[in-house]
Amino acid sequence: MILKIPLIGVNHCIAHIEIGRRATNTEDPLTLYVSGGNTIVAAFDSGRYRVFGETLDLAIGNLLDSFSRLMGFKHPGGPKIEAYAEKGGVLIDLPYIVKGMDLSYSGLLTAISSMVKKYKIEDLCYSIQETAFAMLAEVTERALAHTEKKDVLLTGGVAANKRLQEMIKIISEEHNANFQVVPREYSGDNGLMIAWTGMLYMKCGKTTPISESHIRPKWRLDEIDIPWR
After folding, report:
1. Which helix (H) or strand (E) holds 40?
2. What is the pLDDT of residues 77-136, one digit of tens each?
């Protein structure tokens, strides 16, 4: 107010998508956005990002973080799970829950919590990755077949996982789509993604009056008009 600088409200999920599009020079992808708080398959259509599938409970990052704490890993636990998983080879039978285009991870976490003392740490990490990521690949592939997009973008903090990248790249190639992944330095939450999305709004003349500004933790990306596309 003192400096008379415009305020621009930015949706966190949209910022992850836009920094991914910008960093990879991808115009119109099917996006798999995976983070601690969100697991969403989305694509742009008719002025908004449309959700084609999402988690019904835990986000994939929340699942991995909860499992990490269970195993006693120091934060961030994702890279430690990935490193142990590379040494595992026994696939433990875990709940695989896909309901239409949505998925659920709470049952998987409950099940693996009871197995910690029964299996090697490498096989536990290997199994939770393989099962959880296969669920993501299934709903992403189904959305890709429906939308027929020519590009697939993997973004969000969990996008840094090499095994997940490998799985999504395989399904992309099977549908003749180009696979793109946000650079690691922009995969987690960062100020640049907020700044860049704010610039997109600014170029379209969209600002937020202070009297209308507030925090919206449940602000869905499919509720928001995208004026720059």
Report:
1. strand 39-45
2. 999 999 999 999 999 999 999 999 999 999 999 999 999 999 999 999 999 999 999 999
For tokens 């998987």, the residue is: 108
Positive or negative, the Cα torsion across 79, 82, 87, 92? positive
Q: Is 193 exposed, middle or buried (0-12, 13-18, 19+ CB in 10 A)?
A: buried
b or e along 40-50 (b: 16 or more beta carbons within 10 Å of the residue's beta carbon)?
A: bbbbbeeebbe
How far apart CA 92 and CA 147 sit, in angstroms, is 33
**Cα-flanking dihedrals φ and ψ of residue 178, to 5°?**
-80, 130
- Which tens digit of pLDDT belongs to each residue from 157-173? 999 999 999 999 999 99
Can you give the pTM of this predicted structure? 0.95
Q: Which helix (H) or strand (E) holds 193?
A: helix 191-203
Per the CB < 8 A criterion, the answer to whether 125 and 15 are in contact is no
CA distances from 23 to 31, 35, 45, 103, 181 (A): 14, 18, 21, 28, 9
Spelled out in words, what is the top-level CATH class assigned to the domain 14-190? alpha beta
